[in-house]
């Protein structure tokens, strides 16, 4: 797909970075250079290659370099600490890891602790101008072969590995292109992280399928830089998360100014709140639409229609080649009836690696049972109302409470711990640890169990000490009583 | 505006942004906000910048914002006084 786009639009701009631009031809050349480098290190079809890179041209080029070889892309969060990375490196049985800059030393630490060898490919050390002089690379890959590992938040303390094929990814990209009507004239603001399903599918793949330009920002930390990019580059598509839109909507120092080029701004990862929707609309004249997707399926729904009335709350209708049904206890439900969202898509995975029980629960026939709750209105617009599966949505990052509980439980003064999400503004949650102690200790002692061991967004903001954890007669933790402060 | 009022006002802003997740007594002027301590994430930091602009009627240049400014309420106050 990428090679075809590069051949069709060689001179069009593929990537815009703050200090340089690459055409599709240049990006293809860079991808070939990285592929040659990997090939010289004996990376072949089926090998897993970890990507630890920010949103940048090298991420996109490395993605398509790995694909050229028929190898498997494993993009990971740069915020992960060494102990977290170790799990992913081991689980993926990675043969190589591609990075640059300061992350290289972190990877060296991780790879030194692995039982099987994993090569560090530091792009800083490679002369990409000469690396292309190598063996010819076969571009014929099996559409059914695995192309991508991504991880879905589990409920057992360990992430679930989702494997998607080359065919799945091409379908996802085409489904999005046909629904969002993306073309080579679009300019996509690529600030949603590429390692995540949202940024990968609706940024990297979306551009590759249409010949659009990706205007990259490595992070959302400078408000005016984001605004400047939106205006300077006449961005037409902005895939974001609620907090990005809320920051821009609220920033007093950013002037109210229409963004006429921005034809499609959409939010994913968490529910958009009404205040952000209204303020962004008033300030910039652009309605924020909502997209519904998952690691297992890629994008499922996108609201490209009306946002009047209550429709702004909807994630829209299913993408091309995606169908949605709502399941109740006794079968499928009709319009406006709330139940579990069940999806069928030509882009979705068929199960989790090495997790037969979880696969059986979520994948039935050719459908994926999302664990999310919602309803379809008479017009087929999907509204999300909640979730059955238990995880915490911290700033759009899904956090498995069991992972944090396991870390805190290691503290010798902790008798019992339960981690929950407490609703916060903008439809997000903050992480709260409820702790029963054997011996006295303070809140910071509890946070210190996590600091440096997991990404900062997983560290509990609230620590509450209780004398006991409320449980049902059968011993099940009554989490709803932990979310509120005790009377 | 007295020096003390800047610290107090920033503390009040932070307590609002943190939505009761940190007790008033636990947020001192020297409590570490990032790199340990409360470990405020980038989302809270950006909300704090928005709140500082609204509260003090200043314009924060994002390029000014380094880790040293977000160390604690005292360092944030010192920054506000320069504006």
Brief summary of the model shown:
The complex is a heterodimer of chains A (487) and B (83). With 487 residues, chain A is an alpha/beta fold.
Question: What report would you give on this structure?
Answer:
The complex is a heterodimer of chains A (487) and B (83). With 487 residues, chain A is an alpha/beta fold. Chain A has 2 domains: 2-385, ANL, N-terminal domain (Rossmann fold, 3-Layer(aba) Sandwich), CATH 3.40.50; 392-483, GMP Synthetase, Chain A, domain 3. Chain A contains 14 helices and 26 strands. Chain A has helices at 2-8, 24-40, 57-68, 82-92, 103-112, 166-180, 197-210, 223-232, 242-250, 274-284, 356-362, 401-409, 443-448, 480-483; strands spanning 13-17, 20-23, 48-52, 72-75, 96-99, 119-122, 146-152, 160-165, 187-190, 213-216, 237-240, 264-267, 288-294, 298-302, 317-318, 322-328, 331-332, 339-345, 363-364, 367-376, 382-387, 392-394, 397-399, 414-423, 429-437, 462-465. In chain A, strands 16, 17, 18, 19, 20 and 21 form a 6-stranded antiparallel sheet that branches. In chain A, a hairpin with a 3-residue loop joins strand 13 and strand 14 (298-302). In chain A, helix 1 (2-8) runs antiparallel to helix 2, helix 2 crosses helix 3 (57-68) and helix 4 crosses helix 5 (103-112). Chain A starts with a helix and ends with a helix. The mean pLDDT of chain A is 91. With 83 residues, chain B is mostly helical. Chain B has one domain (3-18, 28-82): ACP-like (Non-ribosomal Peptide Synthetase Peptidyl Carrier Protein, Chain A, Orthogonal Bundle). Helices cover 48% and strands 0% of the residues of chain B. Chain B is built from 3 helices and no strands. Chain B has helices spanning 3-17, 42-56, 73-82. In chain B, helix 1 crosses helix 3. The longest helix of chain B has 15 residues, at 3-17. Chain B is globular, with a radius of gyration of 12 Å. In chain B, 33% of the residues are buried. Chain A binds chain B through residues 219-225, 243, 247, 250-253, 395, 422, 424-425, 430, 432, 443-444, 447, 451, 456-457, 459, 461-462, and chain B through 18-19, 21-22, 26, 36-39, 41-43, 45-47, 49-50, 53-54, 59-63.
